[in-house]
């Protein structure tokens, strides 16, 4: 019975890791389209005062500076969100290694801070 | 750089080529999960007690709370002390530093004894550090470069990258276009771009673009289209030994001294600096100390100065586990007139845990000889093995092992596939073992030079030189 609950636990943690992985991909997709948009605003639409933005399922015409700050803010939240998820994932990987019978030493080194700032 | 582990690849598929040495058949200690010694496993045979003891110590080392201690392996020659040490090294894994040192190595003209010992100590302590970088990794879908009609002026362009999950367009500046041209990147290549430096690396061509073209270079590498997000974070963990850090920082030529081996003496200021830096990193959470294992073979060769140095060095905060091996009984400590067990001073002995190895039994010797035959890729008949085992019992295991190679050569000469009794007999008569050599000396010692025992009752002017009848 203990074996089964351990197996259950393992599946649970592994599932969480995979979900987080998927989440990072989704966030990165949005990050990239935001980046494309910022590039477009700076290059091709540099003369415009107001631009069309797609919000949800609506197109709205908004002043360009507003749009720019909005996207930039979104980028920042995305970046910090991705960093958070990566940290959580590392902890989960250590947890999973322990559940699989290791002592977590293999993946624990990845908790270190990087040498390059 | 001892080892690298990456997040992206789990396995290292490099096969290690090793020369067939005296202990190359050993792959571990041959213990079960609860530290019971298997009668034979991973190349180890017999010595169950010593192996279990070694296994217990291994567990302690792995848990990392056994630094700064020392172990002595005591036993007769050829009873498997070095074999057990090798087994420990093998089962520690690639990430824990293991240094092997024959005690005589420290007597060198270029380096003082304590310097050599300090280097050995620092070689056995690893520092684990992590490097991280942001990279963009993807398959090139399209490159579009706009040049002005005159050929002058700024170039601009667009690069479309994709992974299995997503696709995006990057705007390119003049610098990036140049880099892409230099790497000859084209649609279908899988590339990585380092975000910090902007360096482009070509990983290969995507499988989806693979066609059966004849006109394709043999070095074209096909890789899968990358998965996941485009902008990835790559983290690499290295284990570097303190000694390597010393060498890199001690000279103007830097890390090249690591390869030439010509490190010379390292100033203690450099070591102090490294120590402070490392402890700083540790406090900042940037580094992790990995205490390793230092094995000193034939430890009785060390002299009293080295022993007192060892005493002090073991107390250092950054000390590895020291394993020593000695085959001496009660003998004089080198550099003094005092006698002591194992040739080690008593104050050092007190700090040691002693593992002793006993002589092998007959079936064990036979098994070891069998393992060695496999290792050296030699066939041997059962009768020959029996005879060799007998030789091993009566002379020494080492002598019997030596005979394997020699007799395989003899067997090859007579074009036989396996070694037979006759081959063993032949090499046995060709090469003397220690006992027969002593016998020979006793019979013919008169004819040898500098024979002090018999010199006194010999006529002085026989022609062996005249200045040698120095014996009283």
TrEMBL record, chain A:
Keyword annotations: Chaperone, Cytoplasm
Location(s), subcellular: Cytoplasm
Keyword Flavoprotein belongs to the record: no
GO MF term list: unfolded protein binding
Stored CDD domains: PDRG1 (cd22860)
SUPFAM superfamilies cross-referenced by the UniProt entry: Prefoldin
GO cellular component: cytoplasm; prefoldin complex
Domain of life: Eukaryota
The keyword Chaperone belongs to this UniProt entry's keyword annotation: yes
Chief place where the protein resides: cytoplasm
Function summary: May play a role in chaperone-mediated protein folding.
Family statement drawn from the similarity comment of this UniProt entry: Belongs to the prefoldin subunit beta family.
Subunit (UniProt): Component of the PAQosome complex which is responsible for the biogenesis of several protein complexes and which consists of R2TP complex members RUVBL1, RUVBL2, RPAP3 and PIH1D1, URI complex members PFDN2, PFDN6, PDRG1, UXT and URI1 as well as ASDURF, POLR2E and DNAAF10/WDR92.
Protein name: p53 and DNA damage-regulated protein 1
Automatic annotation (TrEMBL), chain B:
EC number: 3.6.4.12
Keyword Cell membrane annotated: no
InterPro entries hit by this protein: AAA+_ATPase, P-loop_NTPase, RuvB-like, RuvB-like_C, RuvBL1/2_DNA/RNA_bd_dom, TIP49_P-loop
Coiled coil location: none
Domain AAA+ ATPase: 67-359
Compartments where found: Nucleus
TM annotation in the entry: none
Catalysed reaction, written as an equation: ATP + H2O = ADP + phosphate + H(+)
Cellular component terms (Gene Ontology): Ino80 complex; Swr1 complex
GO biological process: chromatin organization; DNA repair
One Pfam family of this chain: TIP49
An example molecular function term from Gene Ontology annotations: hydrolase activity
Keywords, alphabetical: Activator, ATP-binding, Chromatin regulator, DNA damage, DNA repair, Helicase, Hydrolase, Nucleotide-binding, Nucleus, Transcription, Transcription regulation
Family note: Belongs to the RuvB family.
Function summary: DNA helicase participates in several chromatin remodeling complexes, including the SWR1 and the INO80 complexes.
Protein name: RuvB-like helicase
Annotated source species: Entomortierella parvispora
Organism lineage: Eukaryota, Fungi, Fungi incertae sedis, Mucoromycota, Mortierellomycotina
